[in-house]
Structures are given as C-alpha cells and as structure tokens.
Design brief:
- With 429 residues, the chain is α/β, with parallel strands linked by helices.
- It has 2 domains: 5-306, Rossmann fold (3-Layer(aba) Sandwich), CATH 3.40.50; 313-427, no CATH class.
- The chain is 32% helix and 19% strand.
- It has helices at 23-30, 87-98, 159-174, 198-211, 232-240, 272-301, 308-350, 352-356, and strands at residues 5-6, 32-36, 45-48, 51-55, 61-66, 74-81, 108-110, 128-133, 144-149, 181-182, 184-190, 219-224, 254-256, 305-306, 380-384, 389-395, 409-410, 413-414, 426-427.
- The radius of gyration is 29 Å and the shape is elongated.
- The chain starts with a strand and ends with a strand.
- The relative contact order is 0.09.
- Residues 1-18 have low confidence and may be disordered.
- Keywords: Nucleotide-binding.
- It comes from Sinocyclocheilus grahami (Dianchi golden-line fish).
- This is AIG1-type G domain-containing protein.
- GO terms for molecular function: GTP binding.
Length: 429
C-alpha cells in the first residue's frame, strides 16, 4: 500500500537543534516527503524537496535545485544511456550515497520518483533535467553536484526520437544562463551486453558531435546489473573502439553497480533462505558503496571541460546546418534560371533571321517569380524582404527584433540569403 505524507516545508532547518542526528536523518525529517511505506521487501521511501529554478520555453528541459545555494565547488555530470539500462535507479543510488545513507538506516531517498512504471520499451524519463544538489555538512562528497538526467535512447519510438533527444541536449547546453561546464559524461550500460548495439554507438557519436572529440577523456562507463566478475560489455566497448577514458590496464574507465539492494529491506527475518537473501542484498549494497566511493574520487580528479567553446561550436554547427539546408532551394532556383537562359537562347536562335534583318519580334518563355505562401505550420520563419527568400524555416525566434540571434545570421548579416543582407531586413512572416 502506498500513501504520501509531507514533512515540514521549512528548507532553512536549524541544524544546531539536531545534535546527534546524521545529515540523512535531518533531510528525511525536514527536506523530504514520504512517498512509499515500508513492506516486507522494501524500506520506506522519501522524495527530496526540489525547487524548479528554470524551464526552457518549449518545456523539454528544466533545472531543479535541492538545498540552499552556497559558494561551493560544483561538479556537473551528465547521465546518458539506452532505455532500460537502469539510469534512473543509479541516480537515486547516487543520492543515497551522497546524503550519507547507511545500510542500517530504516529509510531510503529518491531524487526521481518513477511512480507507476510504464512499459520498459519506452524511456521512463521524458525531459532533460538538471538536478543541482547543493552541498551540506555531512555529505560524503566535498562538493555540490549537478546531475543532468536525459531521456533514454533506443526505445520503441525509433531513430527519429533519438535524433530529437540529441537536438534537445544540444539546445540544453547552449541555452543562456544554463550550464557552463561539465566534468563527466556517464555512459550507463548493462553489464551483460556482449556487443554494443547501434543505439549505443549512436549515443557515443551524438556526444562527440555535441561536445567535440576532447570530451572523450571525460566519458566514464557506469556498468549496471553487475556482479563480482569482469563485465562482458567492457570488451564490447573496446572492440567497437568507441572513445572514452581508460584506466591503467587500458580498459574503459568503469565502475560497477548492482542496484537491486538499494531499496531492499534490511530487517532481520527468520529462516536460512531469508538469511541468504539478506547477505546477498548487503553484499550488493557494499559493492555499490565501494564503486560510488571510487567514482566520486575519480570525478574529483577529472579535468573540468568548459562549455563556452562548446556553445560556440554548437552555434557554428547550427549556422552550417541552416546554410546547407537552405542551399537546396538556391540550387533549384539557379537551375530554374539556367533553364530560362537556355530557353531565351533557343528563342533568339529561332529568330536569328529577324535579328539580322533588324526586325521586331516576340518570343515567350516561362519565368519563375517569388511568391509568398502563408505559413500554416507552428514554426517561425526568417524571410529576407530584399531577396524575397526564406533564410530559415525553423527559427527559434518569433520577434523580429531578435532575428540577429537566428542561426542564419553571422556577424550581423545573413549567411544564407543570396544578397547576404543585414539582419534587420529579415522578418518572421
């Protein structure tokens, strides 16, 4: 049975009155709410209080914050992986580690409430969300942490949906006032995979296309559903020659997790069979604890990558994409003009005798002229009034005064229209 109860909404708890309590206990009592009661198999679950501090105008990405913002170093990681890899559960496991939860505690936390699970064929995560976890005394890590959670690739909606996710990630990291650095890209993958699927290869290619090849040394493999053995997926990654950080042995830098014990009950029960299950659960808990310690130690030593250059690269790439996309209409227009010239030449040849005799003559050819067509789509257009040309047919800017920021513009002039006109003769029509 599930019910929801709310703890105190006071986010500015006076911790001085909580002597003897762990930070996890304080957060449970003051900065979370219970979303599930305990049972014979699982412990009570509490969801952290989050404050949404930013959301994209299109609603596909957002930023949520936990705790009071303090002047503390902030590490940023992005979690990415195929649908069903266990990414959301791993993020929740990270939170329990960071907040200092012990195996013996009679509660667990979640950052992301998966609620009633839908089909595993579709990604549980629908939006890109940056969770900023502000540091508190008692955390197991010495810094604040921002976790960027992304929708899973490779679900039943196909490659077009994967391409949409990639475009959204691009937009998220180039948004104004967004994230300006990244410390690690965490590729979440199941241990048992003997070879990488096309989806997994696509994920690596997408990341490189967004951040550039330099990000490879910041790509870490997080292996889920792992046991004590060497995960087969490591060999698959090596065979596929996908770029990522490596360890001293030349293997992909990886950390093993088995999250099956994260929410399992730790209450002692009778019987040999029950005792065996408890031992396995605690073993997997200890495995996860050890891997988390190694992961965050490694993260702390990684060189932070600034995204200011990435944003410039993304802007340049968007400009090139718009330029290439709008080249085709200009090529078609050029071919049409060439055909008109050929028809004119043929007509003049036909009337050569009249021309030689200096006589008047008439000829008729078809001429193409620009024509305005009503925009019935929901997208914005950038049209040049001088060239009578659509320079960008999927513009993000509705207001004409913002057209200087359109992807078709560079250094105040249009990079696409035939006349390379100044930005302020372009309008949304």
């Amino acid at each position: 049975m599930s019910r929801e109860t709310t703890s105190s909404e006071n986010m500015e708890t006076d911790l001085s009155n909580a002597k003897g309590l762990s930070v996890a206990q304080i957060i449970k009592d003051n900065q979370s709410r219970k979303i599930e009661d305990g049972s014979n198999e699982n412990l009570p679950i509490f969801k952290l209080h989050l404050v949404e501090t930013w959301q994209h105008i299109d609603g596909f990405c957002r930023r949520s914050t936990f705790g009071k913002n303090i002047p503390k170093e902030n590490k940023t990681i992005m979690m990415i992986g195929a649908t069903g890899a266990g990414k959301t559960t791993l993020i929740n496991s990270m939170i329990n580690y960071i907040l200092g939860v012990q195996w013996e505690n009679d509660f667990r936390f979640v950052l992301i409430d998966e609620g009633k699970q839908k089909s595993q064929a579709e990604s549980q995560t629908s939006k890109i969300t940056a969770y900023q976890i502000n540091h508190m005394d008692g955390f197991r890590v010495p810094f604040s942490l921002t976790i960027v959670d992304t929708p899973g690739f490779g679900d039943t909606r196909g490659i077009s949906h994967d391409q949409k996710i990639t475009a959204q990630i691009q937009e998220f990291f180039s948004a104004r006032g967004g994230i300006d650095h990244i410390d690690a890209v965490c590729f979440v993958v199941q241990a048992s995979l003997a070879r990488l699927t096309h989806t997994q290869k696509y994920i690596f290619d997408s990341i490189l296309s967004i951040f550039g090849k330099d990000i490879a040394e910041n790509i870490i493999v997080l292996v889920t559903f792992a046991d004590g053995k060497t995960p087969p997926v490591l060999e698959a990654i090596k065979v596929s020659q996908v770029p990522c950080s490596t360890n001293e042995s030349g293997d992909p830098l990886h950390f093993k997790f088995n999250n099956s014990a994260m929410f399992a009950t730790n209450k002692k029960s009778g019987g040999a069979k029950a005792s065996d299950c408890e031992n396995f659960d605690q073993m997997f808990w200890n495995l996860g604890f050890s891997s988390m310690t190694k992961f965050f130690t490694s993260l702390n030593m990684m060189q932070t990558k600034s995204l200011s250059l990435t944003q410039e690269v993304l802007k340049e790439r968007q400009q090139l994409e718009v330029l290439v996309e709008r080249l085709q209409p200009q090529i078609n227009a050029g071919l049409t003009k060439l055909n008109e010239i050929r028809e004119t030449y043929a007509a003049l040849e036909q009337h050569k005798a009249e021309m030689d005799a200096n006589k008047d003559f008439e000829y008729e050819i078809e001429v193409t002229v620009p024509k305005q067509i009503k925009n019935t789509s929901s997208t914005f257009l950038t049209n040049c009034q001088t060239c009578h040309f659509t320079c960008h047919d999927k513009c993000a800017y509705a207001n004409d005064c913002d057209k200087y920021m359109c992807s078709a513009m560079k250094n105040g002039k249009c990079n696409v229209c035939p006349g390379k006109c100044v930005w302020n003769v372009h309008f949304n029509q």
